[in-house]
Design a protein that fits this description.
By secondary structure, the protein is of the alpha/beta class. About 40% of the residues lie in helices and about 25% in strands. It starts with a strand and ends with a helix.
Length: about 290
């Protein structure tokens, strides 16, 4: 079984729309959306949720008014101003660090678990899907990503599938690291802009650090020919295969509005044909890695 993670150094490069099309083109994949902070692959794949589970990893301080003597030690100890002058905890400001719990001289504070998000198993027209949603302001996105990937692996074993396609989060934070580590290969989607090129180099270094083979796809390549060539030259110098370049096409946005992958929405246009050719190169690279 192999896992291909599709990531990008920055948001807005078209990673998820491309992932949706690769999901259609792949043969019986297991699908995973590890962009748990802002998942949107479901908007294009229309999953039918079969099972959901709570993700509980955060804690919040709760002050027992019957035990509290209002000495003010906890209020002074809290660096997040989560404890008010009337000794009530603001659950939004509370980081769950436990300093107030440790410092309370009368043991009036309890650290209670709180809901951090949800994890789902779904059915799509293209294969089983594992995905999740981290609630606003919650932490531990890396742990939730790990749960999603573990669920995807179980689905692959259950359904006897040889490929997991994982839509990863943008950037280099803990969620991205949790997505990349242990993967079979990576596909980095980039665009010909200064910030995208900067972040492309950083995410490629991340793959190199974990010794995971990686390839690059240049999206919206015709928007800045010189910058696209700069990306191609950089990849060539560093022996990183480029599996293709896609031109900007407004049909892609029509497909997003329609909630469908572009290769289904407009299969005969140049962009869809290019994606089909790219997927064949990706499959070839996966076999070679």
């Amino acid at each position: 079984m192999k896992e291909l993670v599709i990531v990008s150094g920055k948001g807005g490069t078209g990673k998820t729309t491309i992932t949706a099309s690769l999901t259609v083109l792949a043969s019986d994949p297991i699908i995973a959306d590890c962009d748990v902070d802002a998942p949107n692959l479901h908007l294009l794949l229309g999953p039918d949720i079969q099972f959901s589970d709570e993700f509980i990893e955060s804690k919040v301080a709760v002050i027992n008014p019957e035990l509290c003597n209002q000495c003010g030690v906890c209020e002074s100890a809290c660096k997040f101003d989560a404890i008010s002058s009337d000794f009530k905890v603001d659950p939004i400001l509370c980081e769950g660090c436990g300093v107030c719990f440790i410092s309370c001289p009368v043991n009036a504070i309890e650290m209670q678990e709180r809901l951090s998000g949800y994890i789902y198993t779904s059915k799509t027209n293209y294969g089983p899907m594992a995905h999740a949603l981290l609630l606003p302001g919650e932490s531990n996105s890396g742990k939730l990503v790990t749960r999603v990937r573990a669920l995807a692996s179980k689905l692959a074993e259950k359904h006897e599938r040889d490929l997991i396609l994982t839509d990863g989060p943008p950037g280099l934070a803990c969620a991205a690291i949790a997505t990349i580590t242990g993967a079979s290969a990576g596909l980095v989607v980039t665009e010909p802009t200064v910030p995208a090129i900067h972040d492309l180099k950083r995410v490629l270094e991340l793959f190199q650090h974990f010794k995971i083979p990686v390839m690059v796809l240049i999206n919206k390549a015709d928007l800045h020919i010189r910058k696209s060539k700069e990306i191609a030259d950089y990849c060539q110098r560093n022996d990183i295969p480029i599996v293709g370049q896609l031109d900007y096409d407004l049909k892609m946005y029509e497909a997003v509005v329609a909630g469908r992958p572009i290769v289904e929405y407009a299969p005969s246009i140049k962009l869809s044909k290019a994606l089909k050719a790219i997927w064949k190169r990706v499959e070839k690279q996966l076999d070679a890695f």
